[in-house]
Amino acid sequence: xxxxxxxxxxxxxxxxxxxxxxxxxxxxxxxxxxxxxxxxxxxxxxxxxxxxxxxxxxxxxxxxxxxxxxxxxxxxxxxxxxxxxxxxxxxxxxxxxxxxxxxxxxxxxxxxxxxxxxxxxxxxxxxxxxxxxxxxxxxxxxxxxxxxxxxxxxxxxxxxxxxxxxxxxxxxxxxxxxxxxxxxxxxxxxxxxxxxx
Length: 197
Hints:
By secondary structure, the protein is mainly β. It has one domain (22-195). The protein is 10% helix and 49% strand. It has one helix at residues 2-20, and strands at residues 31-32, 45-47, 60-61, 66-74, 77-91, 100-108, 114-124, 127-138, 144-150, 153-159, 172-180, 185-195. The strands form three sheets. The protein has a six-stranded antiparallel beta sheet, with no helix packed on it. A hairpin with an 8-residue loop joins strand 5 (77-91) and strand 6 (100-108). The longest helix is centred in the first third of the chain and has 19 residues, at 2-20. The relative contact order is 0.15.
């Protein structure tokens, strides 16, 4: 009887884990790949392809959602720099009917510049599998306004530099849609424009 109870418990908890799918991954305590320059971004750029010429950098190791360095060499003024988890969304962005994770990390420079890194993960044999990742621009210059999934596609809304009022802000965003082709996200359709709040 005891073996039967143990077997039922194992089946229940393994079934629960598979039912949770990608939601079982702890993205707050996770290691992310990184490549290319950390600063000077002015557009969305997909990363990780050896053909892009970018060298790999030290991976990002988040602990409790951050990998920040506190620099107190400025006296009482403490500067934070590094990566922090901004959001995780679970939605189908490949059209396969299963949830993927859209993970957004914010890179803080310690100054006014910042940029976002967006990682798309699926679950393969119970383990997270990186489908693609990219960086966006810096604040009003194609900085991330929103990213989300819609009808099995990936949607980015980036701030429009032509409508900026200062380096920080823009009154308009540009919406672009991406479809998964089995190996990468490919932009399709025409850009759409919306009012940034």
